Amino acid sequence: MNQYETVFILTPVLSDEQMKETVAKFKKILTDKGAEILNEETWGLKKMAYAIQKKSTGFYCLLEFKAEPTIVKTLETGFRRDEKVIRYITVKLDKYAAEYAEKRRNKLAKKEEA
Predict the structure, then answer these.
(1) Percent of the chain, pLDDT > 90?
(2) I need a surface site. Which of 22, 60, 74, 113 has the fewest CB within 10 A?
(3) d(CA 78, CA 76)
(4) Regarding predicted confidence, which is higher, 48 or 111?
(5) Segments in the chain forming alpha helices (H)
(6) Smallest Cα–Cα separation from 55: which of 17, 20, 89, 13?
(7) What angle do CA 59, 6, 106 make, to 5 degrees?
């Protein structure tokens, strides 16, 4: 199993509840196919560097997971089919990036405890 990180931007016209439902839908796609979700972050509504589909803001979400390569194709097909997703990118993490991601997760966990 490889480790992946995917960041996707959802349209800003969604309510907070709709945004959470959409993120849950993509997490379900991953878990149904046997992926292990390591980390989920919702970065909230952010201003984009340039307008996409005449929108200048979007809800940014990050999912970090371990999965087989075929599952990534299924996930990205789900992103393309969902009109709420403006942009997405999935990256396979090498061992150095995976170590960095783990340190980052631990640092965020300590920050939340304090």
Answers:
(1) 82
(2) 113
(3) 5
(4) 48
(5) 16-32, 69-81, 95-113
(6) 13
(7) 90
